[in-house]
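Q: My collaborator sent me two sequences in one message, no labels, and asked for predicted structures for both. Can we handle them in order? The first one she listed is below.
A: Yes, handling them in the order given. First sequence, followed by its structure tokens:
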Amino acid sequence: MYLSLYRKWRPMDFDDVLGQDDTVQVLKNTILLNRISHAYLFCGPRGTGKTSCARIFAKSLNCEKGPTPKPCQICPNCEQISKGNSLDILEIDAASNRGIENIRELRERVRLLPVQGKYKIYIIDEVHMLTGEAFNALLKTLEEPPSHTVFIMATTEPHKLPATIISRCQRFDFRRIPPSVIAEKLNKEAEDENIMIDERALARIAEAAEGSMRDAESILDQLLSYSDKSLNEANVLSLLGRSNTKKLKEYLDCLIHQPYEDLFRFIETLMIDGIDLMQFSKDLIVFSRDLFVLQKTKGQSGTQLKMIPLDDIKEYGPFALTIQENVLLGMMNMWGESLQNMRYLSDPDIFFELTAIKMKHKYDRAVQTKNEIIAQNSSSSAESVPNLMASQEWDDFLAFLKNKELMFFTTLCKGNPIYHEDGTIEVILPKESKFLASHLEKQDKLQNLEKLIEEFYGRCHKVKLSIGSPSNTTNREEAFQENEKKQVMQDPTIQEAVELFSADIQYIEKKGGN
């Protein structure tokens, strides 16, 4: 019978364990210093070596030459543990043996002495699946275990374990294995299977495995059935239903630079080709993240890229610079929200298309607004008077703001926006809004407002709040106010009210044509 790669290449001693150097070193020292505890808890994502380390640790304790951090692999105890038929090593799947009866049976067995080795070792996999009653029954055994007994519990969800259980164990947290380590190991396994596989294909498998060596080996197993001679990136992408960076770049190009017709045609092609659009959205987030890295590092930090191959930096570096930074950030944010919604829809493809339309509409509007501002600036007078922003666009922003942050809306709806050449948006507020404006001018409040402006307009802007008149301009409103105050103060009734309340006239509102 064919033996799966993850079983064939399972680590046999601590030196074979990948990506868990700290944990391995502590376990070795535990044996060398004879500081063996009665209970261990191995936590971490799937496929990172928890159960394998538990078996190696058991082998190290019961080896005829041990306890030793380097089991001999040839004594009867080591051979039986490797084959999984040792009488002193009991592996329990808590997912299917989760009741109190199972734990009571375990407690009865704990009293029995080891048959061949020095320790009776219980490996409880997925221990978080035990019921509350089962945990309570296990707790007594963990409090007062026999000296010949060692418990090793493994879980992917340690937060589900009672604190009383965790506090009685030595806890080891297993980390996701780096993609480069996974790719190197897969290359060795492929060579052993006499299969040629290129570096890009290995990188794609390592990326898809998300830090799990077992998942990576399972994917490679499938690929070995796909071809008996050689494997390339296209084979991997076809099997996983994923897209290469070239297709992702084409999609972004359609989204940003091409008309709607090309965008719809491209999405239709994705569907015809059977591309999983949820996975495509995930790939877009990672790809955009890589483009952002290339933007910020000017193509000098290739080792930090997750998807774009190092050989293609010269191609994608210039492409990254054609997309504004805030556009990339906005897209990543929208794709993240889109993924959350797509998970709960019966037809996620439609939502993918709707998200694409919203993105393109938002980007096209930002470009149009920028062009209008440039045109306004070029036609402005030599005095460089600031440009009043388009009223319809500002009204749209206020409607957006009303749903996002009511306090900002309440203040800004009374003002007039002016766009300055340095990209600053100055909002001219009436004097009656002076208190609210001073509150908003606190640094954290203005930063929140600037983030909302960036979210709506698709680009960054500094915000300045002014009372009465814009910077570097004169304001007829102030003159009107001063003139009206003089006239109003001639009214004896108004004079009496001002004196009675020690008040001042802050603002006079014009009504109709009066």
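Q: And the one she listed second?
A: Here it is, processed independently of the first:
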Amino acid sequence: WFKEGTRTGYQQNHQLTISSSSERSTSLFSLNYYDNNGTQVTSNFKRYSARFNNDYDLLKGKLTIGENFALSKLAIHDVNSTYGFLVMPPNIPVYDLNGGWGGVAMPLGMDDFNNPVRDLLIRKDNRNNYLKALGTVYANLKILPNLALKTQFGVDYTMEYDRTIDPKWVEAGGKSNTINRVFQNNTHDLGTTWTNTLTYNLKLGEHTVDMLGGLEAYKLLQENFQGNRDGLLLENRDYAYLGTATGDSKGLLGGGNERKLFSYFGKINYAYASKYLLSATIRRDGSSVFGENNKYGFFPAFSAGWRIKNESFLKDVSAISDLKLRASWGQNGNSAPLASALLVNIYGVNVDGTSYPIAGNQTGGIPSGYLRRSLGNQDLKWETTTQTNIGVDFAFLNNRLTGSLDWFNKKTTDMLFLPPYIGALGEGGYKWINGADMTNKGFELILGWNDTKGDFSYHITTNFSAYKNKITGLPSSVRYAYGGNGLLDDVLGRPLNSFYGLVADGIFKTQEEVDNSAQQPGKGIGRIRYKDLDGDGVINEAYDRTWIGVRDPNLMAGLNLQASYKNFDFTAFFQGVFGNDVYNSWKELSDFWNIGVQNDRNHPLRVLDAWTPLNPNSDIPALSRRDSNGEKRLSTYFIEPGSYVKLRSADLGYTFPSKITQKISVERLRLYISAQNLFTVKSGKFTAGDPENPGTGYPMPLTTYLGINVTF
């Protein structure tokens, strides 16, 4: 059940751009329409967008005003039934003999399954809709030739409105939904930013100084409403609204959130003879999400550069086209989306949730009430990141060989964290705190080579990067939330993205192995054996778990190829990650008959190689309808190498000669064919399909494009 019997959808993208300019104004207007049908039937994404920019010079060039606005409308139908398609037993038909929906026949004794095709088709008209407006207006006044005042006001508005129908349906075998329902949701996010800056530029001989000072105010207002109601006479989008349903109103929820930021900042840049470069920045940021104790944070930054190529001893060295050293140190802050405030939800009638009577004892339905959602923390403070960078930029052989090398040391302190809490606190026990300290150290290398041989030219760019992540500080009150056994010496020094679990030690192949192993509930021939790490003769998660993998790769790399020959052009982009571990949840289907809720699921072919007395050397557990051995627990059995290399994209184009396009009044005409996600090379030890998506999520499809670019 993929579109038109294939494993790909289709896309179309159309854009019209009109620009004009005069001595005192510049204008740009563009329209865009994008339509993308996904691989699963009914999945679709549509976008309509418009953009216009205008700039005007007034008062003989002393005053410049302008605006930049973008408007877009999005409609998304994205009901992911990938898992349903994978696990649906193949002996269950899509339709029954009478044309109705196929389903699980209860007399067969099969577990509960939903028909994934029915799920998609009956909800084909349901979609999420978004309206987005993003724009700024500004005015820049030259007070003096080297002194300017600029004010800018920006708006970022998003509205989401959804109306979906849950219709009635009946499947063969008796499974049904006898009550239909309509859901409506409306969300508004309005962010405004007002920035005022004063700039001063000074040039004295070979000395250049640029100074900037300013302040900025940001406000985000969020409001939402949602509800649902049973009892639709017609299951039709033209009819189905909350007001036309006849049942009780349910799930009526509404809320809001407001955040404010206010910042003072200043910056100064100094350069001498284009050889010595210095810069300093200071910021003082305040956020409404913090309590009065720590509302403001101070964040400075400094950088320096030395363009060695401009020194006299290198000016005449033709082999060196450019050489620059640079270093920087700086801090920035992060504020949590919800932090110090005590959050309370006010509930209405017949809500699927908890509500408390305001006026004491209450008989019958509770008309309204309050539910605490979180606790306040007046001592919460800014999360601060301090980073040091040292780098070099270079170009050799008349700029044919170019590149840069950067080393960085990034330390984050007082990380904002929302830990779990003990049940004794009751509802709303969540509280934001300042948690761990963390470091990231690494490097990034970029190399490029370009050359031209007659009509043939090419450009090759490679990049390599690596980093090491460590938890360097951890409050004792939250050490359990970061994994490990709760001991600080076990967590400190470890990467944040680490796996912690049992160590799988092969398959029990004989009764003697079972009898001589540590106590393990559910152990038996053909089952996974776990290591007794503490040697107490009992397998338990308190003392026999350890660190079993790290999600972070040891190396990330990319390769970009560009080439052209006469009117033909070609590009290709390769990307890879190496040395990382992933949790392969695909094994729950490929290696086990049942370690989940449902029996009789469809399975990949690997289950055919499961352990049996006739297949004693298999490393796949024996098939069983019950998971008495607890084999779904996180263990090394599910941790596999996540390294891969992918050809992300390739593009081949042809640009028609001007002598042809001029005859049809076209400035430029290019035809092209391109593709994305062409192939993946992975580790032989990875047992699923895609290590970048090691589970049952929406697959990354091979996508091909055929397009035309026309400029008039």
